Each structure stands twice: as structure tokens, then as C-alpha cells.
Amino acid sequence: MMVHKKTPGDIMRKSPQSFSDLPLFSRDCRAARSLRGWSQDDLAQRAQIGRATIMRFESESGVPTERVLRKLRKAFEEAGIIFETTKNGRRSLIDNASWLVLLGKNADQTVAGDEISVMEGADSALVCVNQTRSVIIAMAAKPGHGQHVPSYAKNGDKGVVFDVQSRADPDYGVIAEISYSPTTQKKGDIS
């Protein structure tokens, strides 16, 4: 009996039902982790697996189980990262993350996992509605320049928070920079 081993090319030619059905390769893991600025320890904590497993996978000295690969993919998807294989076989990383800055009262109440939406307030300024905690929080205006301007929150955005960086501010009391995964997408090649 002849046994045929699947090559990465065989796997990529499969027509997946969803992004989650696509394979996850070690280079994908390294690229996605780098994009988020995560250490192997950060990813291990988010995926709830051992750091040694990630180290072996990324160095290609071991192949994780399907369960572990799904946990890794879930951790990345919750942080707004999706992996795609184009028709010509090229791998791409879709960075689906956006950010916003919350100001003042209730700014420090938002945590990872909260569902948020962005809408116009009474004075036409954007506000963040934390649907999980049922609070409306003032937002800083979109920055006027810089490379991250296109990924700043827009009216109508909805998403799930994956990172919060809070600090005290003498003018606003509390400022919280929120990273979240909305429904809009932008691509960044990883091949």
C-alpha cells in the first residue's frame, strides 16, 4: 500500500469553508506575532498553550496538534489577524485591527473582550459605546497625520477589544488607547 503525504501545496489547494479552515504555518505564526509586537510568552498566554510548543513550531522542530493550531489561530483572529492564501498560492496576512483613544470618565472601564461600536454623539463628535458594559465614552478626534490614521475608528465601526493601554492624564483624568477588530480589512503581504 502506498501512503501519500500531504505537502503544503496540497493543503493550500483545498477549498476551505472559512478562513479558520486554512492551514497555519510557522512563518504565519512568526509574522502575526511580530505584527502585534507579542513575545512567544505573550502568545502562549493568549492561546493558553506552553511557550515551548510555540518555540518548537516557529523553529520548525516540531508540529503542533490540530487542537494547538486552532488555539493559535483563535488567538490571532481575536487580535484581528486573518491568514489568506491567494489563487496564485501566495500567503497574505490580513490585519483587521483598528484603534481609538478614549478620554476621561469611564475610559478605564473597557477591557479585552468587550464589544464596542463607534457612533456620532449629540455634538457630532464620535463616541465609543461599550455594549458589554452599557456605557458611552468620549473619544479623541482622529489624528491629523501619521501612518496609523487610516486605521483609526470610523462612525459605524463595531468590534471586539483585544488590547487596552491606559494611563493617567492631567487634562482628561484617564486616557485609554483601545485596539479592536472591526469588520473592515486591509492586507499586508507576508510571503
Automatic annotation (TrEMBL):
InterPro entries per the UniProt record, alphabetical: Cro/C1-type_HTH, Lambda_DNA-bd_dom_sf
Protein name, as recorded: HTH cro/C1-type domain-containing protein
Organism per entry: Acetobacter tropicalis
GO molecular function: DNA binding
SUPFAM superfamilies associated with the record: lambda repressor-like DNA-binding domains (SSF47413)
Classification via PROSITE patterns: HTH_CROC1 (PS50943)
Residue ranges constituting the HTH cro/C1-type domain according to the UniProt record: 30-82
Pfam families xrefs: HTH_3 (PF01381)
Domain of life: Bacteria
